[in-house]
Amino acid sequence: MFKALGNLANIGSLMKQAQEMSGRMQALQEQLKTKRATGAAGGGLIEVEVNGLGEALAVRIDPSLVEKGEREMIEDLLPAAINAAQAKAKQMHAEAMQAIAGELPIAGLSDAIMQMGGGDQGPTP
Q: Which residue of 55, 77, 96, 101 pairs with 46 in a disulfide if CB–CB is 3.0 to 4.6 A?
């Protein structure tokens, strides 16, 4: 009977940790909205800026591409620049998640988060 009461105390502790984690996740999302990452393609002819959530904020196209009517080149370079920017944002997100996971005493959580974020190479020095 008393063992069951001990388990209830653990459930309460887990619920508290879950609430704290939820608050941290919301704060992380807000923080990532303010971060910026830039991806470029074609030697910088096209640049895309995204926030830490990977949402596109700005696209810069070198005027020479437009002047020369290089529509096909723009169409080829734009996805590459977007992907590069989003990859940087994804890494930024994974590192932030790693920091949060490092604070929690749950075995294997840090590794699982890094794998989800594509950060198999470990934390950056």
A: 77
pTM of the model: 0.67
Task: From residue 96, give the alpha-carbon distance in Å to each of 34, 39, 87.
Answer: 13, 20, 14
CA distance 18 to 54: 26
Cα separation, 112 vs 98, whole angstroms: 9
Integer Rg of the chain from CA: 21
Q: 51-63: per-residue pLDDT in tens? A: 999 999 999 999 9
Determine the 3-state secondary structure of 58 from DSSP.
strand
Of 104 and 71, the structure prediction assigns the larger pLDDT to 71
